[in-house]
Fold these 2 entries.
Entry 1:
Amino acid sequence: MLLQQGIFVFICNIKKTARQHLLFMNTSLRQLFLQHVAQTSDAPLQLEINRAEGMYLYSPDGQRYMDLIAGIGVSNVGHCHPHVVQAVQEQAARYMHLMVYGEYIYYPQVQLSKLLCAQLPPSLNNVYLTNSGAEAVEGAMKLAKRYTERPEIISFKNAYHGSTQGALSIMGDELLKNKVRPLLPATRTLHYNVKEDIAAITTQTAAVVAEVVQAEAGVIAADAEFLQALRKHCTEQGVLLIFDEIQSGFGRCGTLFAFEQYGVVPDILLLAKGMGGGLPIGAFIADKKIMSSLSHDPVLGHITTFGGNAVCAAAALATLEVLLQNNLMAEVKEKEQCFLQYLQHPRIKAVRSKGLMIAVELDSFDTVLQSVQYCIKNGIIVDWFLFAPHCLRIAPPLLITPEEIQTACTIITKSLD
Ligand code: PLP
């Protein structure tokens, strides 16, 4: 009897497994995606992509999409750049994970840090590699507090610095914070590009975190005078000035880093996104004298298991080599002008740009949504901004050609007819 029951259960289990297998075979990837992959909006794009190369993404049924957002400012050197892919493959075959945060010596990390520092002013000479942009923000905030022994971090209205709780605390918009309070105390936001607000930065302030170009606000570039006044005041008050170039860096604005266009040097520079050419990596970079406050009193000022992982570091080194060797920054301004020339339509209220970081201002979020949907149907991927939902986001790989710009703009303007 017991044996029969056992056999029955066994057969039922086999049938169940077979049913699940059949269900899996018959269930589309889209259904499985909706069932098992966490979503953060109730209207995910649901674009199914199975290959990407250069400027383009490809769906399984062969539809080609021109990527005008570069995975939100990531694929500056294009998707699957052969030099980056080769570096990743070679590194993966050699070793992947050893141990990071400045303990073991390994080639891709050392060479990446050296090459990065060689592009920067002498005071930015020491690199802490992280997993992401938000982790770079967190590390830099902690570094500033440790170094200055002060409590306060100041940021700006409409700033986006990431989604972890420290980074959220200095976000310049309240809506996304409200459900997760309490956040960090001793944070304040000032008005961006308003010189009068700078006086609110005092000797209680450890650091001021500023984007050189506010991305999610809909591409608001800093005024040179504002950044210079900010630098001067921070120096006078002994406050560390942190530039978040996570979105504006790696050639996006026409120079390797946007701050180079302002004659202002930060105390700490934050990088990520385009840095890894598609793999996750970020960094906070400072003078060794500042950075060394992570190593004592107490030790281990910032710890990360994977930050600067060997494969990601190799990808970042290869990405930087591609940017420098091909001088991809050199044509960015020309391509920006191309966009400005073709983005003409009575329904476009304004176009703001800094290199290939472009916001096309329309009359409402509804118009933006309609335009995004039309563009995607016609093979062009555009998006909007977190704090400027009435603006279309354009931030293509830097490789985009003038012909591709014209094609893309024709479809964008048609979407507004
Ligand atoms: N800072 C800026 C300016 C960003 O645009 C982002 C991401 O969009 C971040 C920080 C956070 O980077 P990550 O998403 O890698 O944590």
Entry 2:
Amino acid sequence: MATGGTLLVLHGPNLNLLGRREPALYGTSTLAEIDAELMTRARARNFSLQIHQSNREGELVDFIQAAEKGARGILINAAGYSHTSIAIYDALKAVALPAVEVHLSNVYARETFRHHSQIAGACIGAICGFGAASYYLGLTALCDALDGAKT
Ligand code: DQA
């Protein structure tokens, strides 16, 4: 039985460049294409999405804080800030909504500075390495968690 509601989807810095940004690492889908697919999949699960991209850490914090008012969960690719941002970690902890961390690339097969996620401890789980599908798998995981799916 789907429970529905609104989810926040947050894209961090440089993800507005998807499609032409290092396509060997990040694929050729644009952010608009990923967002459209996420909306289709969310609708099929009876969820609606609020989607934002920002290159600024404080603005990402603002979006997370605002999610407390109406959203039931957060799907987040904090991009470069994933590895550094105590402020985003703190915001996720503060709102206490279930959050799923996603990355297009397999961060563990890349530079060591990408192996640590500063925000992972504030998330219920993380998915990386599947390109745009990381977002879709993350959305499924978040919807399942909110729907109380058996694991
Ligand atoms: C990324 C991985 C990060 O290390 C990087 O800084 C990004 C994108 C990904 O989706 O693979 O900007 O989050």
